[in-house]
Write a structure and sequence with these properties.
Strand content: 15-25%
Largest sheet: 3 strands, mixed
Order of helices and strands: EHHEEH
Shape: elongated
CATH architecture of the domain at 2-38: 3-Layer(aba) Sandwich
Helix content: 10-25%
CATH class of the domain at 2-38: Alpha Beta
Number of strands: 3
Strand order of the largest sheet: 1-2-3
Structural class: alpha+beta
CATH superfamily of the domain at 2-38: YefM-like domain
Length: 81
């Protein structure tokens, strides 16, 4: 982590940007007090687009039908809910 005062940061701004792009954290101080932090830019995550997978996913008509009685014992429960 490198700390620079405002005047130094102005004169070396390109170098500070390069350092931040490489992952180094750069602190900019005003009158000796840390005021800002220069960090690498992170590309935003992809935005969710509803309906983007239309036609690629399907749900069976009976997806919410009760399970057969024989299935309950396989889940460690001998009684139906």
């Amino acid at each position: 982590m490198a700390v620079f005062n405002v005047h130094e940061a102005k004169t070396q701004f390109s170098k500070l940007i390069d350092a931040a792009a490489k992952g180094e954290e750069v602190i900019i101080a005003k009158a000796g007090v840390p005021t800002a932090r220069l960090v690498p830019f992170e590309k935003p995550k992809n935005k969710i687009v509803f309906g983007d997978m239309k036609g690629e996913i399907w749900i069976a008509d009976d997806f919410d039908a009760p399970l057969p009685d024989s299935m309950y014992s396989k889940f460690g429960d001998d009684e139906k809910p």
